[in-house]
Hints:
By secondary structure, the protein is α+β, with helices and mostly antiparallel strands. Helices cover 26% and strands 24% of the residues. The strands form 5 sheets. The protein has a 7-stranded mixed β-sheet with strand order 3-5-1-12-9-10-11, with helices on both faces. A 5-stranded mixed β-sheet has the order 7-15-14-13-8, sandwiched between helices. It has a 5-stranded mixed β-sheet with strand order 16-17-22-23-24, with helices on both faces. Helix 8 packs parallel to helix 15, helix 11 packs parallel to helix 12 and helix 14 (589-608) packs across helix 15 (668-680).
Amino acid sequence: MNAVGAPYERQxxxxxxxxxxxxxxxxxxxxxxxxxxxxxxxxxxxxxxxxTRVTTSxxxxxxxxxAGNAARLKFPIDLGPVQQAAVPELYVLQSDTIVYRGQxxxxxxxxxxxxxxxxxxxxxxxxxxxxxxxxxxxxxxxAYVPAMVGDLGPGNVVRGDADSALKTAExxxxxxxxxxxxxxxxxxxxxxxxxxxxxRLTLYSSEQGASNTSQAFAALFGMTPDxxxxxxxxxxGGFGAKAxxxxxxxxxxxxxxxxxxxxxxxxNRPLMSMHATYRSPTIQRLRLGADRDGTLHAIVHEAQHMxxxxxxxxxxxxSSARMMYAAxxxxxxxxxxRLDVASPGWMRGPGETPGMFALECALDELAYQxxxxxxxLRVQNEPTVDPSDGKxxxxxxxxxxxxxxxxxxxxxxxxxxxxxxxxGQWLTGxxxxxxxxxxxxxxxxxxxxxxTDGTFTVAIGAVDIGxxxxxxxxxxxxDALEVPLERxxxxxxxxxxxxAAFAGASLGTASWGWAVDKAGRALKQxxxxxxxxxxxxxxxTTEEVSAMRDVSRNAYGAQFAEVRVHTVTGQIQxxxxxxxxxxGRIINPRTARSQLRGGMIMGVGGALMEAADIxxxxxxxxxxxxxxxxxxxxxxxxxxxxxxLPEADDELSPLGGKGIGEIGIVGAAAAIANAVHHATGxxxxxxPLRLEDVRASLKxxxxx
Length: 704
């Protein structure tokens, strides 16, 4: 049938543009009430008193939920290392202790959203306030090395003797980079409708994982996952903010339990900035030691992060440095500083995005120091095996990405000298950076049913967060069953369908697709053996995934950017970008291109606009809404092209595909920063590249 590999349109496209797609907040539930939170106005301390006398007299107010009447949640719970980072945030209203500004201290439940918000504003809270510290400082003496970082590796990894190698290197680069806190801000905010009926909990919720949310709530409320249904029919984006359940969903469940009626909760943008996770700011130091011919001998990457009093979560910011390039000596270290802030967490391309910005800018700086073409320097230091552990690569086509991109972008005609191309008041330049994101595959379950009308239903507890999962999984099922795509119906988005990986870490299609493919093939065999319509098969890929060979699996890419920089205002315009990616077999070129372009656009935002600064006095993020937190609009996205290289990889799932959700963002900011240097002759090592910094640097040069 060859549905896989064809550029099918999204199956849910019409439903979305006509408004027929049902999102979490839009489900109809009889007798529903509304809840709105009361959040802490202090950073650290405890709730001393809660005065609700005015609140309870407001028409429509049904109840006030607080630590004194909220159901007791089970503590501790073990959800495994992948979800463990988010667990402390889930203990909503379990004590009167305040550990960050914006923490939920109460909630008002009412017959309308307006009454709930009015009630929440009328609650008078008295606090016993304590001294706080929310300032993220370089070389903070309290920084510690966590036992484990976001990719489940150790916080400190040493290969050889990097310090000695740096001392004897002919050329040494020692530079520091910073990246800010960033917020995911999906189009659909956190929203949940919670209902309790005969001891069972149903959540209509905006989540990146139905089954992992079901498991989390079952653990919190002392239930079995079979008694917690999670419905995620349509989800309006996630970017990591919804990869693990968050406080809004817990608040909805607690409120519904208190009043014994369904309760709706939906966050606005300021609340999203408090509770939707965020990318930790980083302070990174890169040291590279090389021969004058460009051969790397030592790489040291040290990254300092911010974490909270609740969580040990730290991104794997330095991890890529130990495996991207051949160097016999390397040390990568992640450190964290506990501050009185909300817990950071996943955001699209966690760790790799800020880490590769620093690494790929440092490679560019070294290339200029050596007067070597930046692409040639990368190709020259291409490893034959994974330098971090000696494992063979399942496939590694970074060089092909770089050389193909160079040809498409016109790199051969590039004059390497910086700051010399002028068009009136504009300077122009080009830059390049590599991209890398690890490939993950985790066990999933799926079922396939032969219906009596000749169609087939495939069910899996996966969630489509807007990436096109419905479409690509239907394509996989159609080929496995050897039937036209029109005869396949895909059911997804419910925990009761099956246990399935969450939609994150670029592992969705590879993990779910393996289960869907196995279910389709198994059903086809049953039918060929004489089974009648109506038969259902259920499969689990745990055995197959566990048997995968221990190799280094990664997707790779090369990002190219051309920018213009205004010499008077400091404005930066990204004129064109090209991304060339090697990500295994492409299941659907149309949806894949959309994902890769979207990642690159998010990279433009990270390079030039996105930043969330903490007010050190009040402890919350200054950019708490979309008026202050900027990201690219259509006018900022000019010419963005994507090339997907054909790549066969026998060490992946039977489908041969690699995740593409995050590889598009990784490297994009570095390519833009390197292009700005090429345009201006100035290095800007702090994201975002602010026009006031560029303007000041250019002005200082003009006055010399």
